[in-house]
Structures are given as structure tokens and as C-alpha cells.
User: What shape does this take?
Amino acid sequence: MPKINIAIDGPAGSGKSTLGKTLAEKINYRFIDSGLFYRYFAKICWENKISYTEKEKVIKFCSQKERNFAQNTELFFQQLEKQRNELSQPKIGNLASQFAPIKELRLIIYELIRSLVKNKGFVISGRDMTFKVLPGAEVKFFLTADLATRAKRRYFQLQSEGKNLTLEEVEKDLKERDQRDQSNITAAEATGLKIDTTNLTFAEGLEKLYNLCKANKLE
Ligand code: DC
Assistant: This one.
């Protein structure tokens, strides 16, 4: 059967990446966490002492990098995956959300992702995959959960990775990120099949996603 693309958007901690990754494994697809791209570009700017306030410098530096990556997006993606642990640090997440509003940087990331998934067979998670980056994805989801639940999940995840933040710190961080991401959240909510995971176990969330995929194009 021909493969499709499945786009999943949702606020931080909604489960889009953990569920998306497991869904991809279950159906033998590949998973892309688009947040990694934002985290990576923010990190390399920071390492090169370029602040998110220096927009022109950010654009020039990231465009130069993109020209190399675009020649082999697959290799670039493998490099990102290798750095996943380092990139998933909360401080890099915060940095990424400061760089993310730069439109030209977003366009660079859009092109890299579109090139990667053009042959289909991907589950892609993010904030604006369903309505902006991959509006042609055959199945689109919007995952959500209330703030307290999302904070608890993120807190336990960070604990398991040995990253010690308090629950209050994690909740505050999510709240700030929600505010910054609000316009994307609103648009994604209006686009995707909405699943509220607040009262769902991981297995229930996964089953729901899987069944909806089957009912909507996945053979
Ligand atoms: O999903 P994440 O926590 O890895 O994302 C880190 C930041 O990157 C997030 O606060 C906003 C930005 N981001 C984005 O703007 N669009 C995406 N598709 C993914 C992430």
C-alpha cells in the first residue's frame, strides 16, 4: 500500500512527540520531531555567539548552514538524531523558542522538513506541521492536554533524563511557551483531528491515534 504522511501538532507536553514516535514504530514509519530542528539552529547560533535579537546575523548564518544540509537532508537528520539528548535540555528548548519567531529561519526549517518527507512514510510532530509546513499530509492531528497534566508529564520525563527542575519550574516554563506559541496552537487546533490526552493513558492515546489513522487513509 502506498505510504502517507501523518502530521501531529500540539502544545509542549501534549504527548505529540512520545505518541508520534511510538505510532511511527507501530506502523513502520519514520518519526521526525520538528522541535529538534529549532533546537539545533538555536544552539549553533548560540555557540557562535549570535543572539536571537541579531536577526540579520541569524538569517545569514543559518542560510549558509542550510546550503550544506540541503544537499543531503537525510544525513543532516541523522546528525540531529544523534544529538537528541543534548538538544532536549530545557535551556535549549527555551533558546529555541526565542529564535523560532524569526520567519526566515522558519522558512529554512520548513524546506528541510519538506525535502525529508517528500517520499512519504513519516510521522512528523510540531506546532505548525498540519496547517503550514505540510498541509498536504494525509492525516493531521491536534493533540492537547491540560496544563497541569502536561507539566507533570514533562517533569517526569526530565527526571528520568536526570534533569532536575521542580514541577513549579516546569509548569511556569510551559505556560510561557504556550503564550509564545499561541498563534500556532490556535491554527493547529482548527486544522487537525483533536485528541485531548488529559485523561488517557499512553496506550489509550496510541490506540486512538492508530484507529483514527486507519479510519483516515492508512491502509
Ligand atoms: O517541541 P519542542 O519543545 O522541542 O520545541 C522547542 C521550541 O521550538 C518551541 O518552544 C517552539 C519552537 N518550535 C516551533 O516554533 N515550531 C515547531 N514546529 C517546533 C518547535
About this structure: Residues 34-120 form one domain.
